[in-house]
Amino acid sequence: ILSPLASLFQLASTLWTEIANLPSPRHPTWNMNIGFRYRLARMCWCRVDMSSSDVPPYLGVVNLVHIQKKSKVRDLKWFGRMCILVILFAQYVQAAILLTRRIMADAASTIDLAMSFMVLSGLVGLSQSLIISLVNVSWTLDPNFVPCVKSACRIPDCIAYKASQSLPNDVFHVIVFGYNITSIPRSVRMMVAGGYLQFDITQHNHHPFWTVLLALMGLQFIWRTSVEHLV
User: Fold this and answer.
1) CA pair distance 184, 224, nearest whole angstrom
2) Each residue of 47-62: pLDDT tens digit?
3) Cβ–Cβ contacts within 10 Å for residue 60, how many?
4) Of 26, 61, 74, residue with least CA distance to 186
5) pLDDT (tens digit, 9 = 90+) per residue, 64-91?
6) pTM surpassing 0.85?
7) How far is 73 from 63, CA to CA, in rounded Å?
8) Low-confidence ranges of the chain (pLDDT < 70)
9) Sign, Cα dihedral of 46, 50, 51, 56
């Protein structure tokens, strides 16, 4: 189950969500124009800096009216970080090309396949780091914000205010032994999908694309229904 391809499915799901939200937003959550840099930062799972929270919330679950956007200075430190990321990205691309040639020539061993999975995972992580560095924006919570009534906003003050007013609150918590494990089901689904695809590739199962896609959708459906029944 612990597969490096989980990060690939994670990026693919967020990318698909952003593409699907372009024509007409899935949730009419924020009544304001959404910029391109905001979409990129949300796709890379950036968080909002909150001094009052130990675990900052993700950018996509906070109302934009509460966020202060500030462009960072592109100084020597930023340039050095970009150089390191570009060099590492180029090395991973070179390794991906070499491994792809071996796989296409039917000369790849199991170790080569395992290395290719790690290279793909590294490319995903480096791509997200490059995007975040190129966006170069800090997202902080406005210290003078007023709690809103948007159902998708998950700031603790907004959640408490909506609960006091008996308003819709798009929040789902799974508490086990006092710990919030709400984000685990999504992570496990990505790991299961990555593990299935990795097993399918290493076993040299030449299944059609739609068969693999149908199997992945079945795994997700089984996981979601099992979690709902258990919880």
Assistant:
1) 12
2) 898 876 677 888 888 8
3) 22
4) 61
5) 888 988 999 999 999 999 999 999 999 9
6) no
7) 25
8) 1-2, 20-33, 52-53, 170-186, 204-207, 209-210, 212-213, 216-217, 219-231
9) negative
Contacts 24+ apart (CB under 8 A), 193-198: 193/5, 193/6, 193/9, 193/219, 193/220, 194/3, 194/4, 194/5, 194/6, 194/7, 194/8, 194/9, 195/1, 195/2, 195/3, 195/5, 195/6, 197/3, 197/5, 198/3, 198/4, 198/5, 198/117
Nearest to 137 by CA among 54, 56, 44: 44
Residue among 119, 139, 156, 115 nearest 67 (CA)? 139
Report residue 26 as tokens: 């899935």
Residue 116 half-sphere exposure toward CB, CA atoms < 13 A: 19
Retrieve residue 155's tokens: 């700031």
Residues whose CB falls within 8 Å of the CB of residue 5, separated by 6 or more in sequence, listed in order? 117, 120, 121, 193, 194, 195, 197, 198
Burial 72-89, CB ≥16 within 10 A → b, else e: eeeeeeeeeebeebeebb
